[in-house]
Design brief:
single chain; alpha+beta; Sufe protein. Chain: A
Length: 146
């Protein structure tokens, strides 16, 4: 019975982020990164504003499945206000979680921790990691071009 309740909570949180995603839109004067997942058609356009080394604002647009959209919403919540190194650390924690690793650091992911179950479905991992890969590219672009 407890597993059923946990599954229901997981589904409710993912559905909420997918139906009403946080930080949806496009930011002006931002680093813009676009990535796609050719296997399923997910596309994300990420806008990231930096204040020095800190992510001061972030937004995403694009088309994606429920997992991709929910993950993008959760990622934006997790990294806004963080330094680049803190955001990269969260992306690394998320990546390891998608590989099936369990770690107490996953609690730092906020709602994104609810996506841990995606690791059991290899075909969906790219959907979940698309937004996290985009933020890594935005940070790399900011560090390279300032």
């Amino acid at each position: 019975m407890a597993l059923s309740r946990l599954d229901s909570l997981y589904m409710a949180v993912v559905a909420d982020h997918s139906k009403a995603p946080h930080h949806r839109g496009v930011l002006e004067d931002a680093k813009h990164i676009q990535l796609n997942n050719p296997t399923c058609g997910d596309v994300i356009s990420l806008s990231v504003q930096f204040d020095g080394d800190r992510i001061s604002d972030i937004a995403f647009a694009g088309d994606g499945c429920t997992i991709s959209t929910a993950s993008a919403s959760m990622m934006t919540d997790a990294v806004i206000g963080k330094t680049s190194s803190e955001a990269l650390e969260l992306a690394d924690i998320f990546s390891k979680m998608m590989q099936g690793e369990k770690d107490s650091a996953q609690k730092r992911l906020g709602d994104a921790e609810f996506l841990a179950g995606v690791s059991k479905f290899p075909q969906r991992i790219k959907c979940a990691t698309l937004a996290w890969n985009a933020v890594k590219k935005a940070i790399e672009a900011n560090e390279t071009n300032g």
